[in-house]
Amino acid sequence: MADLRQQRVVLGVTGGIAAYKAAELVRLLVKDGVEVQVVMTQSACSFITPATMQALSGRPVFTDMWDPRVSDNMAHIELSRGAGLIVVAPATADFLAKLANGHADDLLSTLCMARECPLLVAPAMNRQMWDNQATRRNVAQLARDGVVILGPASGDQACGETGMGRMLEAQQIHDEINSSLQPKLLAGKQVLITAGPTFEAIDPVRGITNRSSGKMGYAIARAALDAGAQVTLVSGPTNLEAPAAAKIERIESANEMFAAVKKHVRGADIYIGVAAVADYRVAKPSEQKIKRTAANLALELVPNPDILAYCAGLPRPPFCVGFAAESQKLHEFADAKRRRKKVPLMVANLAQDAIGADDNEVTLLDDSGTHTLPRAPKTVLARQLVAYIAKLYSSAKTTRSGTAKDAKDAKV
Question: Would the pTM count as exceeding 0.85?
Answer without folding.
Answer: no
